[in-house]
Amino acid sequence: MALEQVFDYFSKYKPDKSDYQVVSCMGNEPSESDVSIFEKKFNITLPQEFRDFTMSRLGGLYMNAKEEVWPQANAYDVAPFWSFCRGIIVYGIAKEIPDYLDIYVRTEEIHELGFKDYIPFLKIIGNGDDIFCFDKKNKVVLLNYYNTGEAYAVDGSFSDCLMKQIEELEERKNKILSGEDK
Fold first, then answer.
1. Distances (CA, A) of 148 to 35, 144, 151
2. Mean pLDDT across the chain, nearest whole number?
């Protein structure tokens, strides 16, 4: 799956009709130099697909279901786990990016916890235990940094992973809308 499929998905996204709040660095994209500075700091080379994405208008992506479509859970709510996973974040490098989207902040947090072989790039909102990362060989892994500390290989590239998470988010949203979370 190519990055073009991800861009195509968002080119069809209509903010006034969508079920999601979508925010990205639009107009504040990092330069090649900004990405290189990040790579040098963490002694890595990011996959080209991720570099292209983060330097695009979509870099630093936040996609969360609108409250009126999929209400956020209250403390102590009981429901199937999937029903709490109402969005995705793709960390970015843009200047003045908020901390919750900043790949520097997330990478330093993961490294401080002892996971220095990983660069986090995608988080499912509502899943506090797992984070998608690139390992030292630029393979996509799912790191359970909170409970087990283990990383599990994920098939495919950055764009495969991102598109799969978007598709799964759409499936979960449709389950919410049909009442399957009850």
1. 31, 6, 9
2. 87
Span 46-82, pLDDT tens digits: 999 999 999 999 999 999 888 787 667 766 665 656 5
CATH of residue 115's domain is 3.40.1580.10
Answer yes or no: is 182 within a domain. Answer: no
